[in-house]
Structure formats: structure tokens, C-alpha cells
Amino acid sequence: MMQFYRVTMVVLLSLIWQTSLYANSGGGEKHGAEAAAAPKPDRYKHKFWESWVPMLGFTATKIPGLVDQQKVAPEEGRMLVVVFLASWCEPCQQLMPDFVNLQRRYSRLNVDFAYVFMHDTREDAEGFMKEFGIDSGYLANADVHKVFHNPELPTIYVGDRHKWLAARYEKPKRADLAQLDELMKLITAI
């Protein structure tokens, strides 16, 4: 069953990746100097195709309320979506309603969302959470920065139900969130 799941995920991720390449290329063929100048990417050199990458866990301060560090790690049978953001980040603010809608849509399924505030104070993070209706989040610490190599904001890491990294979106756009929604539908349906 695990082998079938891995093969299925590789095929699905390959299709998603190829679709995004086509969409980002403007679709259709290029002619003349433009076609000669555009190198074709080798999908087999991408780290997600070469080997399975485990979904990363971390320890951070849970907010609101708790002062202690809490471990956030993928669990067998549950998806983990980690969203790195900051209260002062304009793209984060623009995408937040979409994140909240995704979280609500998948709240009854085995999906956990973890909002990690980078370079924020507790007060700023709690104000942001209150503004967008987020119940809980985490304040990043040195461990989080080290584990995730200071991710750009916003960044999304998606772990599947078997603790593997299924996708990563750096500086996502609304179209990426639609793609994430489709991926989540596939993973939660399996």
C-alpha cells in the first residue's frame, strides 16, 4: 500500500509540476531566438523527484497564552500545513482570508494548520490572529529559523498523511492556493 501511495504521489506531483511549467511559460510554443534561449528544465534533478523528503517538525512558542515551547510535528494519518508569515507582511495579509477559508474547509478532515509568525512580537502576532480569526499560532525562534533556513514570507510547507513533504510554495499567489486546494483534496481523499 505504501509503495502504491508513493508512486501515486510522484505521478500527481509530476502532473502538477508540468502543469505549472506550462502555465508559467505562457503556453504554446516559442519561436526563433526565444525558443533557443529558453532552457528546458530537467525535472529529475529537482530534489522532490530524486528522493523522498520527510516533512520537518519544529518547536516554537504557542500563542495565545502559552509561554512554553510546543513541538509541532507531522503525525501518521494527518496532513500538516505550515504557513510562515508575519503581521507586517503585505502578501501575507492579502492571502490570509484564503488560508482561513482553506482551514475551515478542511477542519473536519485530518488536516492541521500551523501558522508560524517570523520576526514578530507576541502582541503583533496576536493582533493579526484576532483580525483574521485565527485560533492559534506559533512564534518562531532560532530553532524554526535553523530548521527551515529562514523561509521567505509567505511560505507554505505541506506534509502528507505519511509524514512526507508533499509540496512547498514560496511567495505563493492565489493560483498557488487553488493548486494547494486541489492537492489537499487528493491527499485527504486517499
Radius of gyration: 18 Å
CATH domain class of the largest domain:
Alpha Beta
What is the fourth-level CATH superfamily of the largest domain?
Glutaredoxin
Q: In CATH terms, what is the architecture of the largest domain?
A: 3-Layer(aba) Sandwich
Low-confidence stretches: 17-35, 43-49
Determine the strand fraction and express it as a percent band: 15-25%
Sheet with the most strands, sense and barrel status: 7 strands, mixed
Number of helices: 7
Q: What series of H and E elements makes up the topology? A: HHHEEEHEHEHEEH
Alpha carbon gap, first and last residue: 11 Å
The CATH topology of the largest domain turns out to be: Glutaredoxin
Question: Average pLDDT across residues?
Answer: 81
Helix vs. strand class: alpha/beta
Number of strand segments:
7
Helical amount: 40-55%
In total, how many domains does the architecture comprise?
2
- Give the strand line-up of the largest sheet: 2-1-5-4-3-6-7
Notes on the structure:
43% of the residues lie in helices and 20% in strands. The protein has 190 residues and is an alpha/beta fold. It folds into 2 domains: 51 residues, no CATH class; 137 residues, Glutaredoxin, CATH 3.40.30. It has a 7-stranded mixed beta sheet. The termini are close together. About 14% of the residues have low confidence.
Brief overview:
Helix content is 43%, strand content 20%. It is α/β, with parallel strands linked by helices and 190 residues long.
Features of the shown structure:
190 residues; alpha/beta; Glutaredoxin; 2 domains; 7-stranded mixed sheet; 7 helices; globular
